[in-house]
């Protein structure tokens, strides 16, 4: 195969028989999982940026289109979650090869408590344990927790009227912990006290709202901590930015109303403030050339389906219904600028 330069996309033949809805690389970037309307999940080994033809596994178990896949942290093993229109969430685990027999993937959990399509699955930060949040069209959100005795616990609670489209976990690192001096009460030779991690995630709904959920240890239940109002149509995706311990928290939301909002919170007690990405401001300097059709200020040309942060949490990728992916970065003045756009 002709080698490609770093900037060129590499097409991957998945052998799916219908539309592909999601593709996720694992923690190390060595495995690619894809899912499709053909009701299957496929897993490929990736070597030097290309999938290996001989190494694909097909995971069958869903009876409807599979919308999303999510890799667990490798400390729990090779574990993959998938969610489908059939209302099921399946957690798969790779089995180690025994002698000459080849290893394969097996179901370790089938979550069937939802009454309609499950649209999104997201693993919590690994520091919190093996915990999976699921968003469903039946309006509820569920949280699956793997317990020490080897069983799974499930909390199911009402999330959004009409339906829930996406979930995203807050970083385990407490905002501001990097710059707050820690009390130095440690005895020499002993471990310092562990930083308390809060269980918190955001959900996006068909009621045009984003809700922030936190787990109350005293009540052992999930409660709404905040409601973010700003979109005028279904919120299709939500993404909480990674944080290394700086005070400010960022959440990006994408909507059917053709907008992307960035929500910021400057301290744990501050309110959430919102700002809209403005593609019209960057259209005049569009890297792809040509004269783009101007959209109203603050609006994208089409429905915005997905938003995703870089690992450092400083660059946001936005996937729009017009087939373009744009990359956004906050400048020193606090203004979000489009730094790149790619046409699929």
Describe this structure in words.
With 344 residues, the chain is mainly beta. 1% of the residues lie in helices and 45% in strands. The chain is built from 1 helix and 25 strands. It has one helix spanning 279-283; strands spanning 20-25, 31-36, 40-47, 50-51, 57-60, 66-71, 79-84, 89-94, 105-111, 118-123, 131-136, 140-146, 152-158, 164-169, 200-205, 209-216, 221-229, 235-240, 249-255, 260-265, 273-276, 304-309, 315-320, 324-330, 336-343. Strands 1, 2, 3, 4 and 5 form a 5-stranded antiparallel β-sheet that branches. It has a 4-stranded antiparallel β-sheet with strand order 6-7-8-9, with no helix packed on it. Strand 3 and strand 4 (50-51) form a beta hairpin. The radius of gyration is 21 Å and the shape is globular. The two termini are 21 Å apart.
Task: Output mean pLDDT.
Answer: 87
Distance between the termini: 21 Å
Structural class designation = mainly beta
For the secondary structure, the number of strands is: 25
- Relative strand content: over 45%
Which percent range fits the helix content? under 10%
Give me the Rg, rounded: 21 Å
What is the chains' assembly state? Answer: single chain
Shape: globular
Order of helices and strands: EEEEEEEEEEEEEEEEEEEEEHEEEE
Unreliable stretches: 1-5, 284-291
The biggest beta sheet is recorded as: 5 strands, antiparallel
What is the count of DSSP helices, taking H or I runs of 4+ residues?
A: 1
